[in-house]
Amino acid sequence: MNLRRVKALVKKEISQIYKDPSSLMTAVVFPLILLFLYGFGVSLDMDNIRLGVVSEDSGPLARGFVRSLMTTRYLKTNVVKDRKEAEKLLTSGRFDGVVVIPSYFSQYINNRNQTAPIQVIAEGSEPNTAQFVQNYVRGVWLTWQQNQALENGIGRKALINVVPRIWYNEELRSNYFLIPGSIVIIITVTGAFLTSLVIAREWERGTMEALMSTPVSMSEIVLSKLATYFMLGIASMALCFFVAHYLYGIPFRGSYFGLVLTSVSYLLFALGMGLFISISVRDQFAASQIAIVSTYLPAFILSGFIFDIASMPLYLRVLTHFVPAKYFVDSLKTQFLVGDIWSILLPNILIMNVFTLFIFFLMKQKNHKRLD
After folding, report:
1. What residue stretches are annotated with the ABC transmembrane type-2 domain (predicted)?
2. What was the pLDDT predicted at 6?
3. N or C: less crowded end of the chain, CB within 10 Å?
């Protein structure tokens, strides 16, 4: 291993990156586009549920409940004249749900021995939206019932007042966990996708044969590419952190030391995986497809980035343990929202390093200076 030759090869790689706009686009522009999409375009929050209300009771109690539905910021409530019109608007997609207040609503409320029924109809073709409709209406209903009990003179001691406290993500904003997860996807693409092309590109252009005719070893070639794209990956990670924390306001409660430690652990795996693919496959198109299937898709689907691992079938939950992105997602969410919880971070870092050592071992076995 000659460090002077490695340094010269690194300079060559940097020069090639500057001459190839696609690499810089993937490392710089792609992260910004992805963060923009997840920051502004993708949200699991529902703040404007379109709700129709059919009130068959014209009494003051029914009108009070309708006002409660109309004043909550999560519901965009419209009163319609009858069930037929509400059904038509629900079927056409104008409403996400409908609340029907029956004609005997006030009568049941005045009789404390009976429970006043209301009907909630949700459009089930979007299960997530339907669940939000039910939960929001239920919340308004319980709050309204409590206020009615207080107005009717029921003592405060007879009421159970539940005061929820949400830790770490007080407003339950989905971008608080979507954006740290998107950083994992970005590092996966920057690391694995770009490096999966570099050696395959040398073979396609015919420059690998020229390199092999020199005293440079394959280990030096691979190390130079690893060092170059490691710097590019760190720059991409720093850019992502800056945008997430300072532009989107995602809180960061950990330390920079912990962030660098976890990021380097995963980035080395991603780079190693890409280089292993590039060494094994001498065609850029095939290498890129293998990189997407073996790194990007598992990171997107099985890391807990969007899909909750706890809700997956058992065989998929077992499979997630073999996806290194899972441990990076867990670490980033912990550092951004909670802090440096080393009982979580250290095992994750250790497991990511085990994956890294394994992929570097495979790369070493495959790394031979020969033309066949």
Report:
1. 130-370
2. 78
3. C
Gap between the Cα atoms of 62 and 58, Å rounded: 6
pLDDT(193) > 90: no
263 CB-side CA count, 13 A: 27
Q: What is the pLDDT of residues 161-187, one digit of tens each?
A: 566 777 888 877 888 888 999 899 889
Give the DSSP letter string of 285-349.
HHHHHHHIIIIIHHHHHSSSSSS-GGGS-HHHHHHHTT-HHHHHHHHHHIIIII---HHHHHHHH
Residue with structure tokens 């070639």? 221
246 token code pair: 């300072």
Q: Residue 119 and residue 99: Cα distance in Å, rounded?
A: 6
Separation of alpha carbons 336 and 251, rounded Å: 6
Coil/strand/helix, residue 93:
coil
Burial classification of residue 64, based on how many CB atoms lie within 10 Å of its CB (0-12 exposed, 13-18 middle, 19 or more buried):
middle
- Residue 209, judged by CB atoms within 10 A of its CB (0-12, 13-18, 19+), counts as exposed
Structure tokens at 153: 């003179």
pTM of the model: 0.78
Token pair recorded at residue 137:
């209406």
Q: Which residue has the higher pLDDT, 242 or 284?
A: 242
Dist CA 39 CA 245 (whole Å): 11
Rounded Cα distance, 180 and 162, in Å: 31
Task: Spell out the residues 6+ positions from residue 83 whose beta carbon is closer than 8 angstroms to its own.
Answer: 54, 100
d(CA 366, CA 122): 57
* Residue of higher predicted confidence among 62 and 125: 62
User: Looking up tokens 């497809």, which residue turns up?
Assistant: 289
- Domains parsed from the chain with CATH numbers: 3-42+173-366 (no CATH), 49-158 (3.40.1710.10)
